[in-house]
């Protein structure tokens, strides 16, 4: 009798046959091809990422900056200046590169060190004359020995970068290269960084070690000036390798090497002794060649001695503020408006980088030219302008048109330069009608030409041919697309090197399985 419960031994061979047939099937061949293509695609992605990383390390300028404000790109002034360096210079960063990029134990704002590192590499890539090296002082303790003019012991020095030109060198501090919360540092001893000034600092350092004869600029103090108001002007001139000093005329004389003196918004008149010192300095024993820049207050101040000095140079100040009612010129209000350059005399604008960008004034006095044979207007405006006297009671104005009765058909002069002689030779007095013209508000923006105009003007009157450098602080906007800290670098690496290729592989497998089961 046949036993129906006994299974035949053919079951196993048939199963193996199915797998073999499946592998030989058309579906399997197509699926294998899809997997092979996916694997090749992933390999290409990995290789491209690796190659791009090596190229960017070797050639920093190949790096693509996707931030909205080009946070990781050199500003044009920096790139232009670095490319023209004709002397071998080495930037020594006093840290390992990993430590530097990590923020050097900063409490916050470490993203600015990553930004600074990228900018330093791009600066070095701009010129064969500029070398960048990272020095770990803990493993190179003798490095500081050759820089005996640098204070290495003071905790406040904060030396971060040495700019070495061989026969001359200078140290850049943490405060030179970055801005930080000084209150947090003084109270708790840690750094909270808010921006990087690495471009300004390095360019200033290079200018300082390559400029042999620096032009002196003395800021006159002792007449109630507000240092916070003119600090931006001092900083910009220092960045352009001017030798800037404060001089109190009550106790000292102006420097012999100074070609420019600045009297910035005095709240009291200079006394006769100070005026006498100023006049002797301008005369320079008959050699002349000096310029006083005077920015008066935007309120009424009795200054008979200063007024008498201006009269010698053919000028007089209005006792009121200039205004403009033409909305093509004024900004936030009628006292803040754009100024026009003097097209009849381009002496002070010929070397301006971009004369198409206007300057802006705020609360400016009108400069009355009493002797046009001695005075050259620098900035003015002719359309829809006037001067509102200081003693005007504006509370009685019933409409905006009430100010129109103070308009003048002659226009207003907002800056002018005068000489005692009629042939425009000798020393000069230049008057800019408002202290705000060179305040941080207008010097800190590229929207207006105030910063470039200041540098160009000082270069012109001091007979300097240097390239004027005007660079703004670079900030990282957290809302921008870009690498901002070490954690972000790891995250981007994880996404582009691992997550995207792995995701591609998973999608390929899913497509393969779905096609197989159809």
CATH topology of the largest domain: Rossmann fold
What is the beta-strand fraction? 15-25%
For the record, the count of structural domains works out to: 3
Radius of gyration: 34 Å
CATH class of the largest domain: Alpha Beta
Cα end-to-end separation: 45 Å
Biggest sheet character: 9 strands, mixed
Catalogue the unreliable spans: 62-70, 474-486
Which percent range fits the helix content?
A: 25-40%
Please report the total strand number as a whole number: 18
Mean pLDDT equals 83
Describe this structure in words.
- The chain is built from 14 helices and 18 strands.
- It has helices spanning 11-24, 26-58, 76-83, 97-101, 111-126, 174-177, 182-188, 198-210, 227-239, 272-283, 304-312, 440-443, 450-461, 486-516; strands at residues 89-93, 130-134, 159-164, 169-173, 178-180, 193-196, 216-221, 243-248, 258-264, 291-295, 315-324, 336-341, 359-362, 365-369, 375-381, 385-389, 412-419, 428-432.
- Strand 3 and strand 4 (169-173) form a beta hairpin.
- Helix 2 packs antiparallel against helix 14.
- Residues 62-70 and 474-486 have low confidence and may be disordered.
């Amino acid at each position: 009798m046949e036993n129906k419960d006994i299974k035949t031994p053919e079951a196993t061979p048939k199963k193996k046959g199915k797998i073999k047939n499946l592998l030989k099937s058309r579906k399997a061949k197509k699926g294998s091809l899809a997997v092979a293509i996916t694997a090749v695609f992933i390999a290409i992605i990995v290789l491209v990422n690796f190659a791009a990383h090596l190229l960017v390390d070797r050639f920093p300028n190949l790096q693509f900056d996707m931030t909205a404000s080009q946070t990781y790109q050199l500003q044009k002034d920096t790139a232009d200046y670095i490319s023209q360096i004709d002397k071998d210079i080495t930037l020594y960063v006093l840290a390992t590169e990993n430590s530097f990029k990590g923020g050097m134990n900063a409490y916050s704002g470490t993203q600015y060190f990553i930004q600074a590192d990228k900018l330093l590499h791009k600066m070095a890539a701009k010129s064969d004359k500029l070398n960048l090296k990272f020095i770990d002082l803990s493993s190179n303790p003798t490095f500081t020995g050759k820089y005996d003019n640098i204070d290495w012991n003071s905790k406040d020095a904060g030396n971060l970068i040495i700019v070495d030109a061989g026969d001359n060198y200078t140290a850049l501090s943490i405060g030179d290269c970055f801005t930080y919360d000084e209150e947090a540092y003084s109270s708790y001893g840690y750094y909270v960084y808010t921006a990087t000034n690495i471009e300004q600092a390095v360019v200033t350092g290079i200018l300082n070690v390559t400029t042999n004869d620096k032009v002196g600029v003395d800021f006159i103090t002792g007449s109630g000036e507000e240092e916070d108001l003119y600090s931006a002007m001092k900083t910009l001139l220092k960045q352009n390798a001017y030798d800037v000093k404060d001089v109190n005329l009550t106790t000292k004389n102006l420097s012999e090497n100074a070609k420019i003196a600045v009297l910035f918004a005095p709240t009291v008149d200079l006394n006769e002794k100070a005026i006498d010192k100023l006049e002797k300095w301008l005369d320079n024993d008959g050699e002349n060649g000096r310029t006083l820049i005077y920015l008066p207050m935007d309120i009424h101040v009795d200054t008979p001695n200063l007024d008498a000095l201006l009269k010698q140079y053919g000028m007089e100040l209005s006792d009121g503020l200039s205004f403009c009612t033409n909305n093509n010129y004024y900004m936030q209000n009628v006292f803040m408006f754009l100024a026009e350059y003097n097209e009849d005399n381009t002496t002070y604008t010929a070397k301006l980088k971009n004369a198409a960008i206007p300057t802006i004034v705020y609360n400016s006095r009108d400069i009355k030219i009493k002797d046009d044979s001695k005075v050259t207007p620098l900035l003015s405006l002719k359309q829809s302008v006037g001067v509102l006297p200081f003693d005007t009671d504006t509370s009685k104005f019933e409409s905006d048109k009430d100010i129109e009765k103070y308009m003048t058909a002659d226009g207003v002069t907002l800056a002018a330069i005068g000489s005692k002689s009629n042939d425009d030779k000798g020393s000069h007095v230049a008057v800019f009608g408002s202290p705000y013209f060179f305040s941080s508000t207008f010097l800190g923006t590229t929207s207006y030409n105030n910063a470039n105009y200041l540098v160009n003007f000082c270069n012109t009157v001091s007979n300097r041919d240097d390239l004027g450098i005007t660079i703004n602080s670079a900030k990282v906007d957290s809302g921008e697309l870009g690498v901002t800290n070490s954690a972000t670098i790891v995250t981007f690496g994880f996404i582009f090197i691992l997550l995207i290729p792995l995701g591609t592989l998973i999608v390929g497998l899913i497509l393969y399985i779905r096609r197989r089961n159809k």
